[in-house]
Design brief:
alpha+beta; rbstp2171; 3-stranded antiparallel β-sheet; two-stranded antiparallel ribbon
Length: 125
């Protein structure tokens, strides 16, 4: 067992890539998210509104478009290079069938070890 030093901690990791078959003729690749991408996904589910009168913060959480967001962040080419921008999630959600979205999102969640319990925990906090 080896202790990671600064170089080891800052070195770019090779992220896992998985081929996901959508039907007999089509497939996509999904990749493991970086820590920054996972944070972006989690932060996108939290909204903080500041009340200007009394300076109180109202924090709301929502899983709205969760599947489209994780798909936008994880779909990639065979080299692991992203195919979409995170901001493409809305168009993706509006244009892709729920069946296809579910297949890709489930693969991305599995690869990134994001469970239903994880989603519920984000909503609670």
């Amino acid at each position: 067992m080896k202790l990671l030093g600064k170089e080891g901690l800052l070195a770019k990791e090779k992220l896992e890539i998985k081929k996901v078959e959508l039907d007999k003729d089509t497939f996509v690749f999904v990749k493991e998210l970086t820590a920054t991408e996972k944070d972006q996904l989690e932060q996108s589910m939290v909204t903080v509104d500041m009340n200007q009168k009394d300076k109180n913060k109202a924090v709301t959480t929502s899983l709205s478009n969760f599947k489209a967001k994780i798909v936008a962040l994880s779909v990639c080419n065979e080299k692991g290079e992203p195919l979409l921008q995170f901001t493409d999630y809305k168009t993706l959600g509006d244009n892709m069938s729920s069946k296809r979205m579910e297949i890709i999102a489930e693969a991305a969640q599995s690869l990134n070890k994001i469970t239903k319990e994880d989603q519920e925990e984000i909503i609670k906090n």
